[in-house]
Every structure is written in C-alpha cells, then in structure tokens.
Amino acid sequence: MKKTIRDFDLQGKKVIMRVDFNVPLKDGVIQDDNRVVESLPTIRYAIEHGAKVILMSHLGRVKTEEDLAKNNLEPVAVRLGELLSKNVTFVDTTRGEKLESAVNSLSNGDVLLMQNTRYEDLDGKKESGNDAELGSYWASLGDIYINDAFGTAHRAHASNVGIASHLPNGIGFLIEKELNHLERAIQNPVRPFTVILGGAKVSDKIGVIENLGKIADTILIGGGMMFTFLKAQGYEVGNSLVDAENMEFCQTMLAKYPDKIVLPVDCVCGTEISENSSVRTTSVSDIHEGEMGLDLGPNTIERFTSYLKNSQTIIWNGPVGAFEVEKFAVGTKSLCEVLASLDATVILGGGDTASAAIQFGYKDKFSHISTGGGASLELLEGKELPGIAIMSEQ
Which domain range does residue 342 map to? Predict the structure, then answer.
C-alpha cells in the first residue's frame, strides 16, 4: 500500500501537490471542469489540515511560443477559486524569484497554482523529459509531495517522478480511488468478469487484450477495432477502419480465445462520419463496397446485453461507435443505459469512454469513471505506472 496524504502532519507544511487540470479550453473558457472537481477532496483535506498548498499541473502540449497563450492555466485558477469558495493565488511562471516569493508568502490554508508545468517543455522538454535539475528545483519549494494526478501517472515527468525523488511523498484521494477500483477489478474480480473494448485501432489495445484475455471471462469487441477482427475472420468490411498491421494478432487471439472474444453480428454503416451520411443497418457479412461500419447494430446490442446482464464485474474501455455523431451514437448510448441498470461493479476507462458517458448523462451511474485514459489503459495492460511506482510504501 502506498502512503497517502493521511499519513502526514500537514500543519504549517508547504505541500506540493501534482493535480490533473488538463481540461479542455476554448478561447480561455473551460469546457469541462470534471478533472478540477475530482481534485477537490485532496485539496480541501490539505487546506483543512493547515497546509500551504502549492498546486502543479500541465495543460495541453507546449511545443511552440504560440502554445503558451492557449495553454495558460490562469482560467483554471479562477474556476478552482470558485469551487473552493476562496482565493487561489496564480503565479504565471514555473520558476524564479516571483514564484519563490509567492510560495514563501503563503499562510496556512492558502492555495497557490503555478503556471503550466509544460511551459518548461519549450526549452528542451525539461518537464516531460524528467529533467533532474528541474525536479530538484521544484522539490526545493516544498516540504511534502502529494501526487494526485492519475492522468499523468503513466509518464515519468519532472513534476511527478522528479519531485517525488527528493521529498517525503504520498498519493492523494483521487489516485487512491483509481487504484482501489482498477487494481481490485483486475486482480480479484467478482465473476463473471466481462470486458468491453472499443475505440479505433487494435494497436491501442494489444496489451489490454493480451493481459485481460488471461483474466476476463468474456471480451466484447466494438468500435473501429471490430472491423480488423472481422477482416481477420475473412469478412469484407468495405471502407471500415482496418488496422492491417495487426491482422495476424487478431487471428491469433481469435484462435486462442474462441469462446471468450465476442464479435458483433450486425452494424450501422455510413458513407462518412457526419450527420449528412446515408445510413444502413446490415449484417457484418453484407457490408458494401464504399460503406464503413460506424456503430453496433441492434442484434449486436442485444447480444452484448445478454452477456452484461450475467456479469458481476465489467470494465469498459473505448466507445463502440462514432458517438460524436448522433446517427452513430446508439450503440454507445445503449451500453451506457444497460450498464447503469445493473447491480454489478462497472468501471469505465478514461478518455473518450468517460467523455461519452458524461455527455450522455451517466456521470454518476457507474461504480467508477477513470480520469486517466492512458493511465487506465496501461493498468489494464498490467504495466507499472512510473508516477505511482516512485511513491513511498506505508
């Protein structure tokens, strides 16, 4: 078990907390503040226990000077202040006298948010490359380090692995929750254990299929990746997305798990991914040239539902159709509805799966919705996450 924020006396201590405020911004306006909201329990705990809270987060990718303005964290500081009902000091730099002075001026219970850690990537990728000097410098600003950014736990950055190497450290409540749900489901699932895998490419899910193939009772395949599996079975799939480089992998998995991997029997086809597309529902054996499969068909939804209703543990990673377009959102919506009705442990991976569930109004209907797409995917692959591996054991 990793140490948590509960294991430290925070009174009067400068607590550096890595959070995940990588929210979608449009013209400086936050489009979805879910990641900020998810960080609140750990931040509030630190405030209530007398810490001087120094928050760090990345936002987007910073490769050019133009990226600096659009990935400025100041709007997040404003929103965080509203959610906490208290002033949040924003420091528009990542190092130097201005930052150091602001940190040293903090009183117990104060909150400071530093500028986007990836501003340091503009000159040699110091943040994402885990620059040793940068990690040491940031660590010098505080007394204790708490990592609560699950969304970047699969990366070794200066703001997680770097700082943790120099300070007493522990995880926050969000990472604790993520690990409790995901690791328990993988390591000791209540059976039957069913996995739903969607998304675009098979290449993104190879590790997951290999790992969960040994653990799960059933794997339901949807999304764009289903057509590579169907092509591997000899079906013609028209213009549907096919990951040609991984056809052989699909054939191997189908041969290895013939009773475990369940493929669609029908699909909704279109000519383009837009509301202007013509739509036809057809058997997977009758996809015409020029068509592309873009959603599950009704018989497949019924087939998948029969497995899900008999399951006690379910993990879903990857939407099962092009849900951004209403015409091709039926499969993803239907699975959300079915899963929300079950008396079972239902866990959704982050990224597009989480976005779809929240968009369709199912935010609070499941056991857990992960805040980290890449991190949850690597956990499902059985990989160790460097941002968590570095944290101290109890």
Answer: 189-380
